[in-house]
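Hi everyone, sorry if this is the wrong subforum. Our group has a chain we'd like a structural model of before ordering constructs, and none of us has done structure prediction before. Sequence below.
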Amino acid sequence: MASTSDIRNGLCIKFNHDIYKIVEFLHVKPGKGPAFVRTKLRSLTTGRVLDNTFSAGHKIDDVRVETHNYQFLYAEGDEFHFMNTESFEQISLNKNILDAPGLLKEGTSVMVQVNTETDLPLSVDMPSSVVLEVTYAEPGVKGNTATNATKSATVETGANVNVPLFINEGDKIKIDTASGNYMERVKE
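Answer:
Right subforum, don't worry. Here is the predicted structure as tokens:
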């Protein structure tokens, strides 16, 4: 058992007969009344996101997890296949468990959290950023740079990302996996 003071991003808890991962949280201490914690929870079975408020000191049922290093192999429909880099054992996970499945490139290393009681994979922690090549981008129009103008670009995994006008096909860009936003152009 844990309490609301133990809440942090990535913590897996049992709640409403399901296992949820805490995506965001905020400790609130209003001037009047008791403190509470606002959380955003993602179901690890369905992928649904829900908001919940816990009162301060509320006991929560946490799930014991182990973290293992896996490598992404390939995607087949809604199933994504991974290989444990130590034991070479392969697992397949539904795309609902993944935070940003559109940004996964073959060969990417990820951390998979596994429930120690049932040995079932719970969630996949992607790297904080990925470098992908732009496969399609409309040409930028000169003189359109007075403000932070962006255009849509397609990267090698098939995901669409809004990028600045100076990004062209063949450029490699760094993308934040948490938000899916463009970070910078990478020169090699």
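For your construct planning: The chain is about 0% helix and 55% strand. Residues 27 and 37 are 5 Å apart (CA to CA).
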